[in-house]
Specification:
alpha/beta, flat, Helicase, Ruva Protein, domain 3, Rossmann fold, 3 domains, five-stranded parallel β-sheet
């Protein structure tokens, strides 16, 4: 089906044991641009429903057996749960058709058919399927961008992050998210907001890095007309904009000291005063902060106010760098492949083990953000079903070659010692995932399990 309710083509399965009647229905629908598949008995209908893809199923209620139409409905619900089913019935079978509605059919229509009514009924059913599909896709996009579903990983660290998000999201407690640049701190902030009681209100991010105290004050609290040169009109700050919602202050560790004092005052009073004004304005904002600095060290060095630190650190969530949770690389890579394959309309479905191995050995100084950019580039360059080693960027291959060169230090070791070291390193690389380690080593999982016992590895 196309993605417009005004101009669409639905895939329709027409089931009727009267061939001429089936052809009349199909011709009526084809005039509206729909694509029809015709079958004339229950077994063929089941076969099409198992292997085809349909938006609407139109079936006669009574065919070889009185309940054939109901069995078509049951098969459609099993194999085509997103499709809508329309029952075609003779006048005497209306009670059975109404029972089919209670069983999940979209509607029924009586013979002899009014073809205009029939076309309109199929159109409405197809539009219902289209709308549901759009709503599902939209919700998936929202969840991917803002929900816990967007936080991808199988490591214990990521499991702890998602567990903490679920615990803190319903409250208004301030949250401090720490971690290197590119680890996904804003994604965590989005997920907290999206799963909170403030989810329908505004989420407003502001990056504090590189902003002077005067600019930051105006951004945070707003200003009135004439407050300074260039202030040509009143302007609300992010605190007012996020009233009732969530304010995300990224890189709060870079905030000038004089602004830290003013921020603390607002957090304590719940009131902001625009630059150039004297009138306080009450705000109700949930604060989430983030930094890539060691902010506790900053407090000891006098670069960050200790009282503000305790105010923003209601709960701290730390995101470790990607190099410390390599088991998350593979699921992240496949997550990004799926996303960019759809977005870029590419046929890429997966990545081969050698290419994935190179990515897993890389240290990712730019963390998840860098990995996402690299995967996007590989998907762009790949016109096959599988990303291969040749699609991996040169700098990552060179890093892998450096790792391989380090293996030269194994010269003089016995083969058993080398094998033991290879198994140990591969398990470390996969975060203990034996299935993945076995694939990368080119051996079966049972063989790997036996060797783990033989070498005393856990």
């Amino acid at each position: 089906m196309t993605d417009s309710q005004d101009n669409y083509t639905a895939q329709v399965l027409v089931v009727d044991d009267e061939q001429a009647h089936a052809e009349v229905m199909a011709e009526a629908l084809q005039r509206k641009g729909h694509v029809c598949t015709l079958v004339h008995n229950l077994p063929d209908a089941k076969e099409e429903l198992r292997h085809g893809t349909f938006d609407v199923v139109v079936t006669d209620l009574v065919m070889d057996a009185e309940d054939d139409g109901l069995k078509v409905l049951e098969a459609a619900q099993t194999h085509q749960p997103a499709a809508e089913t329309i029952m075609v019935t003779a006048h005497g079978d209306v009670p059975t058709a109404k029972a089919a509605l209670r069983g999940g059919a979209y509607d029924f229509i009586e013979k002899p058919l009014d073809l205009d009514v029939f076309r309109n009924l199929v159109d409405r059913a197809a539009q219902a399927v289209l709308l549901q599909s759009q709503n599902t896709a939209l919700q998936q996009q929202v969840d991917e961008k803002f929900g816990l579903e967007g936080i991808v990983g199988s490591s214990s660290a990521i499991a702890q992050v998602t567990a903490t998000i679920r615990q803190v999201a319903p409250s208004d407690i301030p949250v401090l998210v720490t971690g290197e640049s590119g680890t996904g701190k804003e994604l965590v902030a989005h997920a907290i907001h999206h799963n909170s009681r403030r989810a329908k209100a505004a989420f407003k991010p502001l990056n504090c890095a590189g902003l002077s105290a005067s600019i930051l004050e105006s951004e945070l609290f707003g200003h009135v007309k004439g407050a300074f040169t260039g202030a040509e009109r009143d302007r609300q700050g992010v605190f007012e904009y996020a009233d009732g919602g969530t304010l995300f202050l990224d890189e709060i560790g870079d905030m000038p000291l004089e602004m830290q004092a003013k921020l603390l005052r607002v957090l304590e009073s719940g009131e902001v005063v625009r630059v150039g004004d004297n009138e306080p304005r009450h705000v109700d904002v949930r604060l989430i902060s983030a930094t890539n600095h060691d902010i506790e060290k900053h407090t000891k060095d006098g670069r960050f106010r200790e009282d503000l630190f305790f105010r923003i650190k209601g709960v701290q969530i730390h995101l470790p760098p990607l190099r410390e949770r390599r088991e998350d690389i593979a699921p992240l890579v496949r997550h990004f492949i799926r996303r960019f394959a759809v977005r870029l309309d590419k046929p890429v479905a997966d990545i081969d083990e050698s290419a994935l191995g190179a990515l897993m050995q890389y240290d990712w100084p730019g963390n998840v953000r860098q990995l996402q950019n690299i995967v996007q580039n590989m998907v762009i360059l790949c016109d096959e079903l599988m990303i291969q080693s040749r699609h991996v960027p040169v700098e990552i291959k060179q890093a892998e070659e450096g790792e391989s060169a380090a293996l030269g230090s194994m010269a003089g070791l016995s083969l058993d010692q080398i094998e033991k070291q290879a198994i140990r390193n591969t398990l470390k690389l996969t975060g203990g995932n034996r299935e993945q380690a076995a694939r990368m080593l080119g051996i079966g999982e049972r063989t790997l399990y036996r060797k783990l016992k033989d070498y005393g590895l856990k």
